[in-house]
Structure formats: C-alpha cells, structure tokens
Amino acid sequence: MVNLPQSLIDDIQQGRCVAFVGAGFSAEAKLPQWTSLIRQLAETPALDAELAAQVGRTIGASASPSAHDLDQAAQLLEDGMGRAPFIARLRDILGVTWSSQRMVTRLTRLQEIPFRAILTTNFDPILKGEVPGPAAYQRLLRAPMARWWHQAFWDDIPPPGEGATAQMRSPVIKLHGDLADAHASDHVVLTRRDYRRRLYTESHYTTFLRSLLATNTVLFMGVSFQDAYLNELRSQILAMFETSSSNDGAPPPDPLAYAIMPDVPSVVQEHFSRHEGIRILDYRVPPNSHDHGGFDAWLDAIWRETALIPRFGRSLSGQRLLWLDPRPANNEAGFRFIQRASLKAGANHSMTLARDLGEALAHLRSSAAFDLVITHWGHDRATGPDGRPTSTAAALLTTMRHEDLRAPVIVFATPEFSDTNKPQALSLGARAYCFEWSTLIREIESVLAPGSVTG
Question: In what order do the strands lie in the sheet with 257-262?
C-alpha cells in the first residue's frame, strides 16, 4: 500500500504539476536504455571495426557509464556513420514492436491523469507529442490549461494497442526530439554536439524549461538524473528558492518535485529531500528480478486520486440524483459520462429523470430522499405563487423552500441571460448556476464528495 502525499494530489488537481517521463517509464516496452542503445548502435553492420572498438573503450564495461561518456560515444558513432544513417539506425532500433499489457496500462493512466503538461526526453515513437519550438512554448506557458473536471477528460481515449503510439490529453513536449517526425535529423538530441546546440545556441529552450519547472511541481517518472544539463537546470531552480535557513539540516517544507524510483536507500532519500528539493516515492524490486510493479502501484494510486473518471465515480457512490429537463436528449453526453464513471467506480448510484415540474415535485414529495437535484432554467414555463409566469427553476426552488423539501439544487442552463438568472437562482437557494458541462461536473462533485475531499 503506497502512502501518496496529499500535496502531490493537490498540485495535480490544481493544474500545477508537470510529468517528466524518462526512459524507465518505457522499460516495459523492452526498449533499450541509454547505455544499451549506444552498444546496439556500435553493433551496426558494416560499421568500422576500429570505431566500434573505440566506442566500447569510451563507455567501458560498466552498466552505468557517465552521461559525458555516453554522449561522446554517440558523437563518435554519428561522425563515423553520417547523420542520416545514424538517425535511420536509431529508428530501426527503437521501432515500436513492444508487447506488454502493463505498458498499455501505464500509457492509459498517463492519458487520464490531468497533468499540466508531459515532458519527455524519450524520442522513441511511444508517446505522440511536439518537439520544442515557439508554438509549443506559448501553449504551455501562456494558454489556459484544462483542469481535472474539464470535458477533455470525459471520454475514453481508445487505449493504445500494443506497439502503437499513445495520444495524450495533456500537451506532450518531446524535449530530445521525435524519431517519428520526418525532420528528426534536425532535432533529435543524443550526441555531444546535439546537447551543445540545444543548450548553448537555443537559449529560448532553456528559458522555457526553466520557467516551466520553476512554476510547477514536477513528477519525475523513470528518470535516472544522468543528464548533466537537466541537473544543472534543477540546481538553478533550487537556488532560487533557497534561503539562509535552508542549511539548518531540515528538509524544505514543500517539495519542488517528486520522483518514483526503485530501491533508494533512506539516507539517499534524505539527501534528495534536503538538498535537491525532491521527495522520493520509493518502491522495492525483488532480488534477482526486473519486476517494477512497485512503479505501477504508485502510478495507479495517483490515477485513482486525481483522474476524473475514478475520482468523480467515487463521489457518486450510493447517491440519488433527480434531473429535471423536458428534453433529456440535450443531456445525453452528461448521462453517459456519469454512468461510465459510476460503473468504473462501482458506485451504484441512481438517476431519476423528470420531464416537468409536477413530475419532479412528485418525486421530491415521495418518501425517497435525493442527494442532489439538477434542473434546467425553463423561462416562463411555470407559474409563481402570485399567479404570474416564472421559470421552472424558480418555481422548483420556491416550492422546495415552502414545503421544506430538502436537497441541494444546481441549475444547469444556457449562458444566455445568466447575468440576470444566476443571481435570482442563488437568492432562491440554488447551490450553483452552471452553463458549461465542465463546471457542472465540478459542482456535482463538490456537492456529493465527502468533507475530507472538499475541505
């Protein structure tokens, strides 16, 4: 059982968490990690034997050579092969041929968690995304982002089939390029020269990355922290938030980042907390095993607490809803979403539909208690106590007050005349007045969720 930090849940829900996906995330796809990739490149048929030997000497026999040695080895290989054959060989090695249900589940979870953005240094085709550039920078830094209740997270995206490219809901930036792009040769980052170009001739790139990482909590997944330039950027960001009291030996009160990592000794976890601003979400890999099920346990816990479908579904558990609208077909998309969320959460909720005010009041006057009533506005579709025409919503709210029919009411209407109708609805006791689906879903959850969730 993982102990998920509430601060991480809050940051994701509030739209200020960025996922940073490294090679370890895709390990279930059996794609080679950095060292293995260089070794496979060095085994390219017809490669000069002396060059292959030099690459071997550069990275040595260690399973974990330094990032400096690896990008130097990549540079040697590119120089010997030429840029185009080098990129073509990368495509051959990293072609998507994986077969793993666990990988499908990982990608599905990543699709549904409402991250502000997903950054990845992986250039394999598993994640569909954009390469760095002005349009991507503006979208992430300036445009409003979808929050957890947004309609973008309603519908099921078909799960990525084994070996397929995954389409995310959150924007994805492939920091080191994308082999699936026809112009991959221009932006893939693997060699010493690639890194130098990205860091020192593309100043807008580091400005973008520094801005995004400084203003959002980061969740590192499958990241080894080998990249020297990434570590340098993190150090710059950490220095901005350090104070003179930061050296008293106490960890900072709120982590700047979290990292899901295996088998990290407690003393190293303490070091990351005190000096790197990172809280480690640790898990154990069984001896003589490559089973990273602990990673998936963390990812699954984050998904359950933050993704719209499981979160909203739990709020429906055992609840009774009454929905008043003479044209229920207008709400079909919402009904389908609520039903899907309820089924996935095993919520066992009930939904009663009423087509007119009389039918709705009859349900409310029955012995059955409702946890929430949703009504359309219905301009001049009812008669008020003074005998004059009034809206269905106003008549419903007035009657419920006079007859002490207790249930929270949300008015769901069109945006027209909301400046006039909303104050009237609220003055008559409505809990909220909504005219967008995403806002309605947020308000429904706010009404039905337990106090521990809503505060």
Answer: 172-174, 117-120, 17-21, 217-221, 257-262, 278-283
Closest CA to 305 of 421, 148, 165: 148
Q: What is the reported pTM?
A: 0.85
pLDDT tens-digit map of 254-272: 789 999 999 999 999 999 9
**Amino acid at residue number 305:** E
Contact between 410 and 374 (Cβ < 8 Å): yes
Beta carbons within 8 Å of 279's beta carbon, 6+ residues apart: 5, 255, 257, 258, 259, 272, 273
Cα 169 from chain centroid?
Answer: 8
Interatomic CA distance for residues 109 and 144, integer angstroms: 23
User: Do residues 257 and 217 make contact, with C-beta atoms less than 8 angstroms apart?
Assistant: yes
What is the percent of the chain where pLDDT is above 70?
Answer: 91
Burial of 270 (0-12, 13-18, 19+ CB in 10 A): middle
Q: Is 228 exposed, middle or buried (0-12, 13-18, 19+ CB in 10 A)?
A: middle
| Token pair for 418 | 């909301």
State how far Cα 424 lies from the chain centre.
38
DSSP letter string over 426-451?
HHTT-SEEE-SHHHHHHHHHHHHS-H
CB 39 within 8 A of CB 74: no
85-113 pLDDT, tens digit each = 999 999 999 987 767 888 889 998 998 89
